[in-house]
Structures are given as C-alpha cells and as structure tokens.
Amino acid sequence: MAYKSDIEIAREARKLPILEIGAKLGIGSEDLLPYGHDKAKVSQGFIDSVQDRADGKLILVTAINPTPAGEGKTTTTVGLGDGLNRIGKNAMICIREASLGPNFGMKGGAAGGGYAQIVPMEEMNLHFTGDFHAITSAHSLLSAMIDNHIYWGNEADIDTRRVVWRRVVDMNDRALRQITCSLGGVSNGFPREAGFDITVASEVMAILCLAKDLKDLEKRLGDIIVAYRRDKSPVYCRDIKAEGAMTVLLKDAMQPNLVQTLENNPAFVHGGPFANIAHGCNSVIATKTALKVADYVVTEAGFGADLGAEKFMNIKCRKAGIAPSAVVLVATVRAMKMNGGVAKADLGAENVAAVNKGCANLGRHIENVKSFGVPVVVAINHFVTDTEAEVQAVRDYCANHGVEAVLSRHWELGSEGSEALARKVVELADSGKANFAPIYPDDMGLFEKIETIAKRIYRADEVLADQKIRNQLKEWEEAGYRNLPVCMAKTQYSFTTDPNRRGAPTGHSVPVREVRLSAGAGFIVVVCGEIMTMPGLPRKPAAETIRLNDAGQIEGLF
C-alpha cells in the first residue's frame, strides 16, 4: 500500500486562521502578532496577564537512543497532543524550532510526520518567524564588538589568547570549526585563533530558552563570559556594553510562536538548542505560558532520554521551577531490532529474538527516567511492518520492568490512533504518583555532578579528565559557579561516547575533552569524546535534492 509523504499530507491540511487558534487558548487578537495567516507570536503582555493562574500538568516525551530506523519522538508528541484533545482534554504542545543545519544535512525536518504534524511545516523548517536569524545576529554582534573593543585600545585588558567567545552560523560547516581571524594587516585588527559553532549550540540560544522575560534576558546576556585577562579574571559581555543591543535584536524572538497541528490544536514552537551539544529543550517562557492556558502540556526533549530527558530534569526543570507529572518513552519495534543487531535492510522481516535482545536499551532508559521520581509509559510508535508477535515482545518486556507499553498509531490515523496512549497518560498524570527530583543537588561539586550523570545515567565506570580540566572546574567553583548544573555534550547514538556501541553497555569510560562555562545560561558544558559543536554535512547532504518544482513548491525537504 502506498502512503502519502509528510509534505503531501501537510499541503492538504485545512488550517484555521491563527487568530482562531489563539482564541482556543483565550488569547485575543490584540495579543497576537501574526506572521501571515497561520502563525503568530504571543505578546509579553498576555504572558504577564496569566501568571496568577494555576499550572496545568506537564507531560515529557522522550525516547530510546536514536537509530537510523527512526523513533518518531516529535510525531508522538504531536499525536499525543491531538489524542488528548480528542478525548476532551484542554491540551497543547510545546516543541523546539528546527535548525537549518540538519534540514540540509541528514536528519531532515522537525515538525512530526504522517497524520501527526504541526503546520506550516515548510516554513517551520526553514526561516519560520526569524528567531534563529535573530539569535545568530545577536551572537555575531557580540563577536564583532569584542574584536572592535580590542582594536580600539582594549580598555577591558582582554588577553587575545584567551577570547572564549566563538562565532556561530546556522549551518553544518566543518571548515569553520577552527579559523584564524583578523588577517590582512593593521586595519583588520589583531590576528588570533577563533572558530564557529552551529547556532543551536550558542549560549545566546540557551539564554533565550531559559530566560523568563526581557529583563532576565538582558541580565543573562550581560553575564556571558567572553574572554579572560592575563591575570585570568573574566571579561563579561556587560564589560563590552553589548547586552542592551543584543536584547533589542532578540526582542521579538523572545515571544513564543503559536501554530497548529493538522487537527487544528494549538502548539508553541519556540527555541531550538540541540540535546547532544546543548540542553535540548524548547523555551521556558513557552512551556510556562502553555501551563497557564492548558490543562495538559505535552513537550519533548531532544534525542534519547540519556541526553534530552536528563537535561530537561536537571537543567530546565531546576531553572524554571517546573516538574513533569508523567513521562512518555517512545520506542519502535524497528529500533529494538536494530539494537538487537539487525541490519537496516533487514528490518522488514519478523525477528522476535532481535526485539527481545534490543529491548535492553529501552530497559536502561526506563530505569533512568524512573530514578527522577516520575511515572513512565512506553509508547510503541507503530510502523506498518510491525507484527503482533514483535509488539507483544515489547509489551511483555515493559511489563517485566513495571511499566505499561501502549501501541500508538498516530502516524497513520492521527488522534484516532493515539486515544489509548492519551488515556494512559491522563491516568498517570492525574494519579499523583510523581515525586520529581533532580539526581544531584545544587551544592555538589562540578566534577562530582559529571560523575553522577556518567555513572547513574550512562552506567560508566569512570570519568576520564586530565588535571587541566579538573583544575578549571575547581577555579570555577572558587569563582562562585559551584551551584551550576552540568550540560553533557555527547553522542546521541549510545550511552557511551562511541556512537557505534548500541544496546545497554557497561564497563566503559567517559572521556572529557573540554569544559566551557556558560555563565549567562547558568550551566557548565562538558564536551565528551569526539562530539562536535559544529557538525559537518554527510557525504550526500539532503541539500543536493532540495529544489523548487514547476509549481513553485519545495521538493526534497521531507
């Protein structure tokens, strides 16, 4: 049977005017800034006006470690949101915006799939409302002002060998990872080494996603450490006097973006840090606003639960003062078989033994999520090639681990296919069984926090870090940053730092290559193994097949 592509389904969507979507949430037209007919930003005035309301219940959607077989975490998030509305609940969705890097690289779009999508998907996966461009511009403004400050006399006494503020671009471009800038003579400044990260790894992105309002945003921007002096004392963004202009550039980007699902249910799509190199969650302001206008808020955290969910719990929830009432852990039969050693080309054939073997990865994630004190349900994202015996194998495995596995067919049937999952989520969220707590306290030492995540979440035996890194962490503790959480930058494909080690490995080490202080965002980035904060394009990037057809429509993006 031939199925329509995601983009074919999206083009057939019967979208409501965005003002009608806002009305479902009680947002008046005066509080919406439309971008065309099907998307809008929500005003700070409206956000301020609902702060005295009680919060709804927060549902986190996470997943097993991703495989080339695909897990469908965003698709499940959207399907669950639609399913909750279908059974009569006042629910909305909060997800991240898409980066251009993976769109033109290998991963593709980030708006869901099948009949569980958020629209307009083409615009969401390209320029959308310009938030990422604003973040890139604000980051670049600070970069320009740092070098300009040095050029005009260096009043802050910056040691040009210790400028730690890297540049960014929202594209996968490995050639920019390490550069030499300011070449060409006296008029171009003082030559030094520099480099680029992708925009989603920018501290400005993290700050925007954690700030509660514009005043908090400006303070956090001012707290960014951009360089050090010869005596190793920090130079802040506020010393360069850049935070005010950066806030101006980010003024509109701070407002959450309102869009809709194929079934005309409301969704906030705002912010977009990757979970393998950043904290992997949509903005705090979008999530907290959603909790004020809906009874159930479904959000996701990037990649597997070892990265996205861990950072959602230990960073976002801690910083925002929020807590999930239930967690949905997404798995697929195909991914279980791949974790069980089946090649991608052979995934269509029934193989219950491989499913059972591959479930070890799922079991590890179940244990980890439970350790945060939150009830869990496993969502089996259905593929048409799944057999009843394979699905039952996953159900049986989950039952033996004390959780229920629910088959969800939202990709094929929309909300009709996610009703059972929605009812189970409501049961868990309303049960009062959640007793959420992060897995480490604020006052634990920074290296001990890294070890806690490595040993409790990754099941590593040890963390390998040379004395230089350990001394750096100690210096930051002495400077007053001991209470910050840590943000692990690690491959998403494995519990280890080796992307090829699937399943639930033990007896491994976590090598720390570098640590970065994000003082404005309020966490320490810990770069592990070979992970890159500037990805590269694959041998055959998706960009090679993306083009406009004769009707002016985009082809190849999905």
TrEMBL record:
<dbReference type="InterPro" id="IPR020628">
    <property type="entry name" value="Formate_THF_ligase_CS"/>
</dbReference>
<dbReference type="GO" id="GO:0035999">
    <property type="term" value="P:tetrahydrofolate interconversion"/>
</dbReference>
<dbReference type="GO" id="GO:0004329">
    <property type="term" value="F:formate-tetrahydrofolate ligase activity"/>
</dbReference>
<dbReference type="GO" id="GO:0005524">
    <property type="term" value="F:ATP binding"/>
</dbReference>
<keyword id="KW-0554">One-carbon metabolism</keyword>
<keyword id="KW-0547">Nucleotide-binding</keyword>
<dbReference type="Pfam" id="PF01268">
    <property type="entry name" value="FTHFS"/>
</dbReference>
<keyword id="KW-0436">Ligase</keyword>
<protein>
    <recommendedName>
        <fullName>Formate--tetrahydrofolate ligase</fullName>
        <ecNumber>6.3.4.3</ecNumber>
    </recommendedName>
</protein>
<keyword id="KW-0067">ATP-binding</keyword>
<dbReference type="InterPro" id="IPR000559">
    <property type="entry name" value="Formate_THF_ligase"/>
</dbReference>
<feature type="binding site">
    <location>
        <begin position="67"/>
        <end position="74"/>
    </location>
    <ligand>
        <name>ATP</name>
    </ligand>
</feature>
<comment type="pathway">
    <text>One-carbon metabolism; tetrahydrofolate interconversion.</text>
</comment>
<comment type="similarity">
    <text>Belongs to the formate--tetrahydrofolate ligase family.</text>
</comment>
<dbReference type="InterPro" id="IPR027417">
    <property type="entry name" value="P-loop_NTPase"/>
</dbReference>
